[in-house]
Structure formats: structure tokens, C-alpha cells
Amino acid sequence: MTDIDVDAYLARIGATRPEKTDYEALCYLQERHLMTVPFETLSFVEREIPSMTEEFVFDKIVRRRRGGGCGELNSAFALLLKSLGFRVVPLGGRVLHNGHSAFRGVHNGHLVLRVELDQSYLVDVGFRWASRRPLKIAERGMQKDEHGEYQLVHTPQGDIEMVHDGVLRWRAETHPRDLEDFEPLMWYFATSPDASSAGQLWASIVTDTGRVSLFNRVLTRHRDGGKESRELTDDAEFIAEFEKWFGITLTEVPDLPRASQGV
Q1: pLDDT tens digit sequence for 36-56
Q2: N or C: which end of the chain has fewer CB within 10 A?
Q3: How many structural domains comprise the chain?
């Protein structure tokens, strides 16, 4: 593993260095990451091919203060956790719901992390319905936090399915994956006209009262159990709102399709 500037990464997420590598520290770091580093697919819109190498994700998220897709965010978070002494295993997943309807996403189209402490936990900082705290893999019942009710369902095939507020969101394999296994998907999402990401801009960040999401030009604020959406038709307003919520400065608005609903 490449040595990274851990203090710079902690400063990026507004966190102090934990004294122990325990469950409380993991909860703290996961929450800080979710509230400071946005999920965003700007690279895919601009047809830039991301990478999951340590140097790439550290430069993009820490030095350039960007966000990224699930692969970039979770691989970067794994890098931070490992540098702090946590035991982390990448797992390949498949998204099964896009927020509006069920579908079958591509294999290794999602990346989650297994962290080994007193027991095994699932950690995800790259999914807009992710739990705010780690999920206990051995727990069969409901696990609740500020983001809703979660349940991990263990399938007969040995996979784990994550159900959020009654909706099946993704399925993950339980055997370890190398980060190189996900690199072809980075190329696919960035270049294929058949990919769900083709020409579409998603962004999402956790807030104290919920989250703020963007789908193309539709900005949606989720707070206190409700949500409100509006379309950002003016380019100057779009640029201002994108920087306000996601911390990314744009010089121009990408060519985006019209969206009829928020996320």
C-alpha cells in the first residue's frame, strides 16, 4: 500500500485522527466522509475515465477536493482506513434499484467494504441510500439510523442483499475482490452509450437534516422526512448551487438532458 498523507485526508473530511481502530472510530469516519465528500458522476458526463488506483483517488478526492462514483469513494475510504490500521476487504456488488424502479445492474458495478473489528461490518460511502453507520453483517434484524431502516438479507447463494426502507437496493458477494477487478467498469461507465451513466449527472451529499441530490438539472433537498425538487434552468444558478452543496467549482454547465423528477 502506498503511504498517503493521512492528516490531509482527515482534514478533507473534517475529522480528527481517532485514538483507536474501533467501532466508534469507524462510525465517526464514515459519517464525516458521507457529509463532506459527494457522490458525483461528473467524470462520466465529461467522458473522463476514472481509476481506482491509490494515487488517483487520493489526488482526486483530497488534493482536488472532488467526489466520485462508488468505486472511487469506497476505494479511497478503504485507503484511509487501512492507513489508520483498520482491516478492510473490498467486495463486489450489483445495484438492483435505481431509485424509481427495480433493475439488474452490472456485476461489480458497485463496490462496498467489509471491515473486520469485534465482528464484520459492511461500510459504504459511495451510495446515496447508504447507511450513516456501518451495518453489522451477522445481524439478521432491522438496523436503524438517521437514514432509515436497513436489513441485510443473506441469500442461499452466499451473497448479501441490502434492503433500505423496504426497497432492495444492492446485492454484494462475500468473497474478497481486488480493486483491479473494477477497472473495466470504470471504462464502461465512462465510454459506453448503453451505460446507465451515459450523459447523466448524479450528485448527492449527506446533510445534518437529510441529504441533497442532483439528477441532471433537478436539485432535490431531503430534510426532516420530506423533499422538495426544482429544476435549475439558469446556468449561473446551476453553477452556484453545485458549488454550494457539492463543493465543486464549474466553469460551465455540461450538456445535460432534461429530467422530469428528482432523486
Answers
A1: 999 999 998 988 998 999 999
A2: N
A3: 1
